[in-house]
User: What shape does this take?
Amino acid sequence: MTSSQAAKHKKYWLQVVLDVPLRGPFDYWHDAAVATGSRVLVSFGRRKLIGIVTATLEQPFYDQEKVRPIEQVLEDLPPLPAEWLAMGEFAARYYQRPLGEVLLPALPPPLRTPAAYTGKRSAGGPVARLRRRSAKGPDAVPAVAAPELSAEQAAAVAAIGAESPGRFLLYGVTGSGKTEVYLQAALQVLQAGQQVLFMVPEINLTPQFELGLRQRLQDDQQAYAIHVMHSGLAQGARLRSWLAAYEGEADVLLGTRMSVFTPMPRLGLIIVDEEHDTSYKQQEGLRYSARDLAVWRAHQAQIPVVLGSATPALESWAHAQQGNYQCLRLTQRARAMALPDIQLVDIRQETPPHGLSARLLRAIEERLANNEQVLIFINRRGYAPVLRCGSCGWLSHCSRCSAYAVLHKGLRHYLQCHHCGEQWRVERACPECGDPDLRPLGRGTQRLEEFLQQQFSHARVLRIDADSTRRKGAAEKLFGQVHAGEVDILVGTQMVSKGHDFKRLGLVGVLNADAALFSQDFRAPERLFAQLVQVAGRAGRHQEGAEVLVQTEYPDHPVYQALVAQDYERFANAELKEREALLLPPYSYQALLTTEAQTLKQSLAFLQQARHWAVQWLQARGWEQIQVYDPVPLHIVRVADRERAQLLVESPSRAALQRFLPAWDEMLAQLAQKMRRTYTLEVDPLSI
Ligand code: ADP
Ligand code: ZN
Ligand code: ZN
Assistant: This one.
């Protein structure tokens, strides 16, 4: 259309957000009104993109002559609702990202991929295509009757039902039956005709919960519709779940962190299980906390939210202490089982040759003889963390990172750097001195598996870690074997520690936990404590007399002492006191600026400039409540030939920090352009 022809039409000026690194929104026009929240196909530079209309304007901001028309309004779905846009706006503002970089990635990929609409084979777009393929619903599962609730469980369910919109911290020891509380609370909401968003931290936990939900969320009249969402699903399946939630056909959406962004018109309750889990924090792109967004969303929708954990995040615990969240306690295990006995095994004298102390080996033997399962937990995958030359002391460094390359055994042995991902074959001889005497140093899951299989040759040993579960469906299969009782000794990383309800597990052995004691990250003790309580909590869920043995060279360390006492509250309150004294979160709010360059010097130079500007800006306004620290190298400085550094900004006032960050970010964008650097600015970082 020529411009004179176009002039005959009335033009509707629209603001559109796009998933591009430039700050939007962008101006476009159309010859008819377009509702806010509509998805539109537009040209951007030479590309076609799908964007979302966020407003209609009287006049464009951009030069009218240059504003381009929208190519197509996508009408396969009703416009996205205002609450959904509002949540995106909040997240964009809070986490300092362009709105388009928040909203578009929150949609299932086909809904934002132009090729899904424009190609010859697009056939009306992905939604139309999906609707033509009839979905086979899941097979019905027999209903399972609800157990009689304990008094504490019943009180928790009643509290959640009574106070809407309430914020609840369901603090219940491992095995206390938190799931039962979620189910009953969900049932109340479902019976009132509303939807439930049920979040779990890990993909691997969805099958267990999905089955539990299907068994329980049905009555004589109907089985409620349960849909699952996580990044392991095929695109079509994920789109189907999203549509079911969006169109109100799904009663329950069970999913990982990404599901927090799913529009749900009848939403009546949000549950965040294992709310302390760091997997709720996205570590790239929009670095959001799904737990925090869930709380915000529930508040906005005026519905209850339940955060559940045996080891609540200290942020959540502080909220409960301050009365912002109502604390619901489950102090007893549901099946009248005692918590497992946790003991420390002092290995200072012994230095066990294969990593397992005599005491642990004996305990394994006894449990196996008793037909119980054993879990050996070590947070290190691979065969050995480093390969060493016996004659000259050469160590297997990664050439691109300041880290060792890990030895893995396979058809061919290989070294792999867990930071840049690079793999290479193990040389026959030392690259320095030519001696063939190369030896693995230390141990990971693979080496333990090998040793345990030799030691207990009749036992069925299984390893679950990122390597053994890489293939699609592998994790589900392996966990299935464990649950079916086909495994005697399970060796695993933190993947096995979360949420699973193992039936015959009588012993947990913990190796190498000490490494976490010396982290410079102030959250390391909190994370270690939570992780050990979680893994210990896998034991003795269905039988008495379970035991947890933690090998350590620091048996007097306060984290271990609190663990043995199984006293989360004492631990949490002591930690909070310390954090308060040092003005650390949750008593202050942080943002972390990170950059990388060929040299550390370049990285630090960028951060120095960023700091200089920040300090000037703050001084000019006389703001004293924001502290800007000195730039420092990251703990692992070099990754994939890039050297990294960071700069921390901290304030006791969240509002002050939130007022400062947009101004700083704008300046950082200019500085980055000038100095040809890239950076990430992370709000509420979880590891520093
Ligand atoms: P948590 O999530 O708190 O660690 P779960 O919800 O997995 O604990 O519950 C532990 C076990 O106790 C499960 O096998 C569950 O079926 C069972 N359970 C929960 N509540 C009850 C109850 N009221 N009576 C009997 N068994 C229960
Ligand atoms: Zn050598
Ligand atoms: Zn590397």
The longest helix spans residues 600-621. The two ends are 54 Å apart (CA to CA).
